[in-house]
Amino acid sequence: MLRFLARRIALALVTLWLLSVIIFLASHALPGDVGRRILGPFADPRAVATLDHSLGVDRPLLVQYLDWIGGFIRGDLGTSLSFHVPVAQLLLRGLGNSVKLALVAFVIVVPLSILGGVVAALRRGTFIDRTISIGGLSATAMPEFVTSIVLILLLSITLKVLPISVQVPPDADPFTQVYHLILPSLPLVLVLFGYIARITRAGMIEALESDYTRTAVLKGLAWRTVVFRHVLRNALMPTIAVVATQTGYLIGGLVVIETMFNYQGIGQLLYTSVAQKDFPLIQAGVMTVGVVYLVATLLADISYSLLNPRIRLAGRE
Amino acid sequence: MSATIALGRQESAARLRRQAWVERLRLALRTPSLLIGVGVLLFWVILAIFAQNIAPHDPLAPDILHKLQPPSADHRFGTDGLGRDVLSRVIYGSRGILVAAPLATLLGTVVGTAIGLIAGYFRGLVEDVLMRITDAFLALPTIVTALLVLASVGGSTTTVILVIGLGFAPIIARTVRAAVLSEAQLEYVEAARLRRERAPYVMFVEILPNVMGPVLVEFTVRLGYAVFAIATLSFLGLGIPPPSPDWGLTISEQYTYLISNFWWPVLFPALAIASLVIAVNMFADGLSRVLER
Amino acid sequence: MASQSRAALEVTDLKLAYRVRGRDRIAIRGVTFTINKGESYGLVGESGSGKSTVAYAVMRYLPDNAKITGGSIVLDGKDMLHMDGDDLRKLRATAASMVYQNPGTALNPTIRAGDQLIEAFVIAGVAKGEARERALAMLGRVQISDPQGVMGRYPHQLSGGMQQRVVIAMALASDPTLLILDEPTTGLDATVEAEVLDLIRNLRATFGTSVLFISHNLGVIARMCDRVGVLYAGRMVEEGPAWELLTNPRHPYTVGLLRCIPRWGLSKEVGPLDTIPGFPPGIGAAIKACVFADRCGLVQDICRAEEPGLDPVGEGHASRCHFSDIAQTLPRAERDMVKRPPVPETARAALSIKNLRRTMTQQGNSFQALAGVDLEIAAGEVFGLVGESGSGKTTLARSVIGLGVPDAGSEIDLEGKKLAPRVGQRSLDQVRAIQIVFQNPDASLNRRKSVRQILGRALTKLTGVRGERRSRRIVELSESVRLDAGLLDALPRQLSGGLKQRVGIARAFAGEPHLVICDEPTSALDVSVQAAILNLLVRLQRDRNLSYIFISHDLGVVRYISDRIGVLYLGRLMEVGPADVVFSAPHHPYTEALLSAAPSLDVREEHRIRLQGDIPSAAKPPSGCVFHTRCPRKLGAICEQQEPPLLEEEPGHFLKCHIPIEDLRRLQKPEAADQAG
User: Fold this and answer.
1) Which chains, if any, share at least 3 CB pairs under 8 A with chain B?
2) Domain region containing C289
3) Among chain A residues, CA nearest to C122
4) Is residue C34 in a domain?
5) Which residues have C-beta within 8 Å of that of residue A50, sequence separation ≥ 6?
6) Partner of C225 for a Cys bridge, out of B78, B83, C42, C674, CB 3.0 to 4.6 A?
7) Which residues of chain A lie closer than 8 angstroms to B260, CB-CB?
8) Contact yes or no for B278 and A141 at CB 8 A
9) What pLDDT does residue A311 have?
């Protein structure tokens, strides 16, 4: 188990390093120089040179990379070009807000989609199964801005049950805060629902068709016991991994949602930084997204290995 | 099953193979999701090709005097904030995405399949290096990768195709590699090595045909995501530049009118995207059902 | 569950169909049999005969597309087919249990073995507090030496034999009226299989349970059952007392089936094995009269017009044949072969293996899969390689063909020339010279390539022929394995298992090899098909005077085809010698145990040697002689401390044992071992 974890962490670190290289190269080594891209094609070449120098982008790439990654490790992410405040401060606040939104989405979607997947598998081939499968598939495939528009029209403008604005007074009670986050979280919920329900259904069906389920049934156990004791635990293991990898997707969705709802999270920050060509913020922001994803998958691996005795007891006799 | 029964002498293999295809076609015709998906896709393709003949107005001609008109006999879908005909814009708007999405997916599938084949076949160091790099790419959602690159190089249809296509490659590589790994354990691969076949032959002639099923399914699934991602990039203003009638772009331009209850310039392109996305996914779902058999 | 009924199970005219693509395809065509209380009933048949389907129908555990279309199943006096969910559940909990093939997947991987066992007791009505005690006691009864420890382990921490014991313990928890065993030892090693079968026999004696035993292996059935029913294409064709039926079969199918089996001591020198021509009818085939008519050598017009009844032919013995009285005169399907001249004494060694070692790693632990094997195989010789799982026989084969790289210092020479470790480094001649027939043709043939493509590519790469000449060679090659040229454009999945294996053989022979490795080439096939494939391999080998390394776990098969035999255990050759010498005493104690473990059709009540415990892990081989932990003839400390050398005790007969051969000869008295020819 320890060996498994050490290996996983080492792999995550290697991935993280590669990621930093990719991000760095993507934002530096593409054609054109940084100052020119920021100032535009008509700027004075001297101004470009000065900006390049002050940004340090006229130095060799390797030096720049080491400088940047060194800062990253120390927690010094540089200063935002557009906001003129430390990048770390911006990212931290954005991350906090995004986590709130993501949590609301997860709290709604995880139980719902697992239930949906389990029910679909147990009622395989029936109308309920087809509805959940096709509904989930359609919801998953729908871009968030499309669902947002339909939901805003339906829930805020027509039915007026949910506020369209995410802005709440800072002293609002937690309930109000969550209430305002429901509408923006729903498009995310819809996308995630299909994913998680589908994997859960597949895992359930595999477990239901397994030999050990047959053993349990032929033992004479009640169907309820078979499902709860023998099937679910094995069936839900793949779901955990999927939930974790979906955090990555979730951040992509946040870019759209936060921009649409003008919610100050990491997604909006990324979008603004791109629009403003705020390179220190872009690099650090994208890197943060990667770190969040890797941490999430690592946590999933750990919980998976805790549930799976094959891994938990590996190396022990 | 019917085709697997041992052949008698008089039965020709070719006939059985034809039968298998007929059987598969029959199955396809009995798969509603496949039929609906293909039907809606064809609908949009025809609209895109014959847009000039079908669209009632010029999609780009503004008419400030008649802006934000609700749907009427002349403008069945109403007019937008610049007075342009929403119906015509929806019809023309299908063009960009119907070209970009398949091209991006094709690019991603070709590159991803190659990477997956190589990683799955060679194992060892080659696999480790390739898979670590794909992992690193996978840590970023496609949209974020696209943001990063498009911020540097600027948006255009070509860059969108390249970014989405290459962004999909690692995901497809993973799927293909998994299929190749289980395939490479089969002894026909060893049999090929025992007659000294070169690696490219084994990968592309022996293994590839056997993983085409998953590749094809992955292609259709990714096609859905390409529509998703390209529309989203347009919506974020990073894809096809204005004044294109592209659906995502239109929605982002007209989105502000929604609050004032001018729903038609936004809802119709949104429904268009929805129908396309659902069609692609039903097609994917139906295809995998047919191929599973 | 006391009942007045004398029968534990009565199946009457059971009919069952599978619904495939909207059409019902009949699989069971009316099967009737009765199992009395305390009786052990065997159901035999080849794949597709419907034997497992019958078993699952009895438990009412059938796939959704299966439909029982007629007949009745009465278990312990209760009608199984008209029972609602709750009664059915109770019945499964108390009256009937099942043990299946693959114990590894039958146990839930995330629940401790003990908890799964306790659950079985609780559901059978034992109080929760008492269940644990009962579970421990039951583990003791299935001869698990450390019940406490096993209770706390997860299934993956147990060996295959242990897993099957736990499953058996679970099945017996309810003290069922009927125990269904569906191929319970298929996939287990011979020595472990023997132990498990003994255990089942002893338990049956203690518990008095009725048993329905499903197997494809007639030897196992002969040993385990009082009465036997033979299923063919979903129809019972013969039924009778086990010994009577196997020694005096009265249905042509049973007669043919028994003749297909390479019996104890039978060798290719005696003659070819008999085969059953043709193919069994598929599921859903329309059959009007006798199910066996199309393949029967005694067929008359009446057989195709009218189905015979299952008529009595002796005491409790019945056969569904119009000509049951002359069934045993069934003509032999295979002509006698020409005897081959013996291999000249001076034959140059085709293959010479010196000090072959291979260290492998598994989950971070390295172990020696082969620990220094020396071997010479002469030109024109068939060398049989026998061993259980982990013995290294596949590793050895892979090293020879160049797919596994042996440790430095190992040497493999072919016809006097050193072979490079990897196939890619060998010369084309060397690659052509050594080819392999794989175990499973489904995996070894590319399912997207036609037979013509498969053979054509092999011909081109190995011999360089192209165009017209290649087309001609493809036809010749397929004819040499008796594959109809009309099948050349078929895809593998359109062929039956036996035909597929013929394609695999043809491919191996494309480059006119000098040495062919046959890695369990018949173990995925039914016996009637196996016989045909063995005959083919013998004929090809004789016609071309080439060498085989023939790997198999089936001792009868190895004995039949081999000139010499080597016995591997934990990566070491324990015994090497001419086939008849190895199969008759004196032999190595391990060989002795293997021979005695193999289920045989020829020995009725036998004095058997049983090995205790599982095969040690190759990662931690025992000190001294690696067999000492299980050896029933262990001498003492010397066996634990010193590894004996492989010595030539008699001319051509090598043994790796501390016991002097004369002592072995005395210990292994003729009646103690199964005698070869």
Assistant:
1) A, C
2) 255-329
3) A221
4) no
5) A35
6) C42
7) none
8) yes
9) 75
- C9 located within any domain: no
Whether residue C444 and residue B187 make contact (CB cut-off 8 A), yes or no, is: yes
Does the distance separating the beta carbons of B3 and C440 come in below 8 Å?
no
C418 and C529 together in one domain: yes
Give the gap in angstroms from C-alpha C47 to the nearest C-alpha of chain B. 13
The reply to whether C536 and C415 lie within a common domain is: yes
Query: Which of B127-133's residues contact partners 24+ apart within 8 Å by CB, and which partners?
Result: B127/B177, B130/B173, B131/B177, B132/A11, B132/A14, B132/A15, B132/A18, B133/A18, B133/A22, B133/B170
> Residue C123 is nearest to which of A221, A233, A314, comparing CB atoms?
A221
d(CA C390, CA C619) in angstroms, rounded, equals 10
Please report, for residues A19, A172, C256, C266, C298, the alpha-carbon distance to residue C329 in angstroms, rounded to integers and kept in the order given.
77, 97, 10, 20, 8
Residue C44, classed as helix, strand or coil, is strand
Chains that touch A (3 or more CB pairs under 8 A): B, C
Inside any domain, residue A72: no
In a domain, residue C141? The reply is: no
Residue A182 in domain: yes
The residue with greater pLDDT, C579 or C335, is C579
Among C275, C503, C257, smallest CA distance to B7 is for C503
Identify the domain containing residue A261 by its residue range.
87-273
Domain end point (choices C298, C329, C360)? C329
**C356/C476 same-domain check:** yes
User: Per the structure, how many domains does chain C have?
Assistant: 3
- Answer whether A255 sits within 8 Å of B147, measured CB to CB: yes
The chain A residue lying nearest B269, using CA atoms, is A146
CB-based contact (8 Å) between B77 and chain A? no
Q: What is the pLDDT of residues B257-282, one digit of tens each?
A: 887 888 888 889 999 999 998 899 88
pLDDT score of B8 more than 70: no
State ipTM.
0.84
Nearest residue, CB atoms, B278 vs list A32, A138, A293:
A138
Find the mean pLDDT for residues C67-96: 90
Instruction: State how far the Cα of A308 lies from the Cα of A234, in Å rounded to an integer.
Output: 8
Q: Is residue A312 part of a domain?
A: no
- Where helices occur in A29-141 by DSSP H, the ranges are 34-39, 45-55, 61-74, 87-122, 127-141
pLDDT, one tens digit per residue, over B105-143 is 999 999 999 999 999 998 788 888 888 888 888 888 888
Substitution target in C448, C449, C453, C488 with the highest count of B β-carbons within 10 Å is C448
Whether residue C646 has pLDDT greater than 60: yes
Distance to chain B for C444, nearest Cα, Å: 4
The answer to whether A87 and A80 are in contact (CB under 8 A) is: yes
Instruction: Domain of residue B257: give its range.
Output: 2-292
Mean predicted confidence (pLDDT) in C88-104: 90
Q: What is the distance between the alpha carbons of residues C447 and A270, in angstroms, rounded to a whole number?
A: 49
Contact assessment for residue B178 and residue B207, using Cβ atoms and an 8 Å cutoff: no
Are residues C400 and C458 located together in one domain of the fold?
yes
**Is C579 a domain residue?**
no
**Is residue B266 within 8 Å of B258, Cβ to Cβ?**
yes
CATH of the domain at A222: 1.10.3720.10
Confidence of residue B10 (pLDDT cuts 50, 70, 90): very low
C396 to each of A45, A200, A308, C155, C575, how far by Cα in Å?
Answer: 72, 43, 34, 30, 16
Residue finishing a domain among C568, C603, C626:
C568
Q: From the candidates A274, A278, A279, A282, which should be mutated to test the interface with B, based on the most B CB atoms within 10 A? A: A274
Nearest beta carbon to residue C108 from set A212, A218, A313? A212
Residues C643 and C502 in one domain: no
Q: Do A3 and C364 touch (CB under 8 A)?
A: yes
Interface probe with B: pick from C422, C440, C446, most Cβ of B within 10 Å: C446
Q: Specify the number of domains making up chain B.
A: 1
Letter for the amino acid at C362? Q
A238 to chain B: which residues are within 8 Å by CB? none
- Do C649 and C606 lie in a common domain? yes
